[in-house]
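QA checklist item 7 of 12: single-chain prediction sanity check.
[x] sequence parsed
[x] length recorded as 242
[x] structure emitted
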Amino acid sequence: MDGEPKHRRRNRRRTQAQVDAFQAAVVGVNDGLVSTLALVLGVAGAGSGSATVRLAGLASLVAGACSLAVSQYIAGQTRAERRHRLAMELRGVDRLDAKARAQILERELVERGIGTANARTIGAALVDDVARSSTVLGLLRYGLNPRDRSSPIRSAVSTLLMSAVGALVPIVPWFFTGGISASALSLAGAGTAATIIGGVLGRMTDGNWFRAALRQCALVVLTAGVTYEVGRLFHALSGSPP
């Protein structure tokens, strides 16, 4: 990190922001996919007609996407407000002399298990760069990067759109067919999409995309099976005609 050009730091932060946005989008797709598939198959298992299943699926799409987007916006806005308060606090720290800032950094590092000698060395090395020492202090004290500029609105909109895209996968077959055929196509499409999503998430985490893809697909199939059987049980208990 020492001597790293500013443009490289900017590019690194921009890349991290893009990765965070992509992860939020993938989560949005997965949420819309799983929740809508479960609802569609549950309603289908209860013996409902294609029109009812389509209506339930579209209602799930709108409600789920909006709910997830609102949650994403609230979480992002809360982080932004916390970063703003952190930045105000750090401006006060930045006005202190170098010795006082080094002592604050040293204390924070010691509280997190760093030896006193090492903490003193790190604090002395960071204190000459005010921006860097503020960033480290923010991460240590609050787990927040005061230089983060992620947008809650952009994250919410991305989540909304991607959740809607994921939700469409299990709904589309019901516009062309019905019954067991539509249920099978919904499950097949959702299973394929879930496998791809799992592979992408696995690639971005521990690199084991195959295991993550299989796990994601298995979870989707399990969720679909449970909700379908619950729907069938409800249909049987209600005594509705087949």
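[x] summary fact logged: Residues 136 and 145 are 8 Å apart (CA to CA).
[ ] second reviewer sign-off
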